[in-house]
């Protein structure tokens, strides 16, 4: 069983930055892929960014160049640095871990509004 706890969401103005954190209850060396998804009101959940055990990284086209995913093995935590936030980034952000099956955090709300 893997527990994931997100933090770092909030309400910001367009152009601002936020950093999301996802703390795992297991050693993240064992996790095949770690990622962030988001779900905006009335829309399906979508992949934002994922980092794989081999080090490769995928980003959604809509966040490429603005968001950065990273991980800290010592803290069993991965992050999503979000820069130049836009109104369309408003969503509930979920962290995800693939370890035999998918595990999800409870989500953290990011609101970008002027």
Features:
single chain, 114 residues, mainly beta, seven-stranded mixed sheet, four-stranded antiparallel sheet
Question: Brief description of this entry?
Answer:
With 114 residues, the chain is an all-beta fold. It has strands spanning 4-7, 10-12, 18-24, 33-39, 46-52, 57-59, 67-72, 77-82, 91-99, 101-104, 108-112. It is built from no helices and eleven strands.
How does this structure look, described?
The chain has 114 residues and is mainly beta. It is built from no helices and eleven strands. Strands 2, 4, 5, 6, 9, 10 and 11 form a seven-stranded mixed beta sheet that branches. Strands 1-3-8-7 form a four-stranded antiparallel beta sheet, with no helix packed on it. It is globular.
